[in-house]
Amino acid sequence: MTKAEIFEVTKRNLIELLPELESVNIEPEQSMKDLGANSIDRADVVLQTMEALEIKVPLHQLGGIQNIQGLIDFFHDRLQG
Q: Using alpha carbons only, what angle is made at residue 15 by residues 14 and 19, rounded to the nearest 5 degrees?
């Protein structure tokens, strides 16, 4: 799966939880917090994305990720090996 495909899955999950973002141009360098997602929303997006990608990762491993691109990169690396 490409990084672009992972971004689309992540974005879809983000919009599903925060429908007000549907009209917003979401970019990978943005953080979910900056887009208005609280900590529960962010955890839900991550969990839904992991489920869609069939990845299991302890959430504490995602602690240092600063933006959506970091999440995409992390998931892409996990899918590669």
A: 135
